[in-house]
Amino acid sequence: NTLLDSEEVAVLDNTKPLTWKVRKTDGTVMEVPSICIWLPPPDTESGEVALHSQEVVERVAALLSKSRAWLVSCYTAYLRSLGHGSVPVFSKLLPQVREFLNHLERASGDILIDVEGRQQLMNALRVVRNNLVACGELLRPRAQFFMTIFIVIVSFSDLG
């Protein structure tokens, strides 16, 4: 095996001062005199970009974690406020409301699994689902607001 002029190799082991183990692009592993290998200077700009990218990813992950916790808290509080007694729903929208509640329950088992307060959300969700009552067009203001939220969310979920 020989190494051609300007052939790129991956250095596998450079612990010996006189010979290094390298892998050629065809997969051949061989030892060559270390004097034959030219190592380019480190790319400090790439290192800085990688470090900055890692910081951005960590910030986004923290923001997502806070957002998920906030969503769980808001949904739990709102569902608890609805869960005392019957929850009137316009009869034509009852299937979509049930589907949304089912979807929220499935999502809480997947994307919200590690969020504190998840179990309280699940309990509030079950109470509301068990108390859904079909009604005519005239809804109490609280239930009307509840349905407006569901209509918007169901509309957005239909887009995907």
From TrEMBL:
<keyword id="KW-0677">Repeat</keyword>
<keyword id="KW-0597">Phosphoprotein</keyword>
<dbReference type="InterPro" id="IPR041615">
    <property type="entry name" value="Desmoplakin_SH3"/>
</dbReference>
<protein>
    <submittedName>
        <fullName>SH3_10 domain-containing protein</fullName>
    </submittedName>
</protein>
<feature type="domain" description="Desmoplakin SH3">
    <location>
        <begin position="3"/>
        <end position="40"/>
    </location>
</feature>
<dbReference type="Pfam" id="PF17902">
    <property type="entry name" value="SH3_10"/>
</dbReference>
